[in-house]
Amino acid sequence: MDRLTEMEAFATVVDQGGFTDAARKMGISKSAVSKHVSSLEARLGARLLNRTTRRVSPTEIGLAYYDRARRVLNDAGEADALVTSMQSAPSGLLRISVATDFGVNHLSPVLGDFLQEFPDITVNMVLNNRFVELISEGFDMAVRIGELEDSTLRARKLTETSKKMIASPAYFERYGRPARIDDLNEHKLLHYSNAANGAVWKLTAPSGEKRQVRTAGWLTVNDGQSLLNACIGGLGIAYLPSFLYADALRKGLVEEAIPDLPTETQGIYAVYPPGRFTQPKVRAFIDFLVEAFAEKGPDTW
């Protein structure tokens, strides 16, 4: 007899507390369930169930076997679900969390193409500047920038962005331009309050030495676009990703504070709940973003 069917019959008898209810649960006859369990006991050479006229219960050996058998059956069920899922067309509601600046500038422009390609998916994109709890808050995935906190979430890198310290020409004219990292202690810094490192800037000196700048900020904001606006307005130096400042830099509205420093990079990731397989709608969107960002090229970021 089929080993998995024997296991399923035995585990169902234990779950249902008897052969009659197990037969009803499995949709087969009571005698068939009994035959499967008897075959399993004969193959193992052990009695797994105590049978009386009133009740059925697992023996000590049967209880130990039940725990392992149930795991095997659950794994087999997940394997079947994986195949079914991978063959089904992506569909349903996709809830995404993304930082406001990145969502407005880079996700919104490509959503139309995604929805055209996958018409059975509907998207609810929530723009915010905090790390949401995906599972408890009902999100299917999030796009996060920078170092990922230790987490049970799964992650896939979509692309990366460079970071530079920038300020307006007017600021440099008024306060001077820092020549080295230590000079930042004498300048007005603008901080992003939602950054994982808080008010700490991680920089690399021309020598390759890793440095940290902990100077208190003159202005702290939880929105990257607001920091860029403050830079353009001459309020101070900000440390921002290039997807925010690139256009302003090309137009001459901001300049790099210390051009000699090596460029720092940050990863941009899709994060999603753990599991043995990924929902088709989530997998479809992540694959789409990887391709869309690759087509834009590194100069975009």
UniProtKB/TrEMBL annotation:
Name of the gene: dmlR_2
Name recorded for this polypeptide: HTH-type transcriptional regulator DmlR
Keyword field: DNA-binding, Transcription, Transcription regulation
PANTHER family: HTH-TYPE TRANSCRIPTIONAL ACTIVATOR TTDR-RELATED, HTH-TYPE TRANSCRIPTIONAL REGULATOR
GO BP: DNA-templated transcription
Matches recorded under CDD domains: PBP2_CrgA_like
Segments forming domain HTH lysR-type: 1-59
Coiled coil regions in record: none
Claim: Transcription regulation is one of the keywords in the record: yes
GO molecular function term, any single one: sequence-specific DNA binding
Protein family membership: Belongs to the LysR transcriptional regulatory family.
Keyword field contains Transmembrane: no
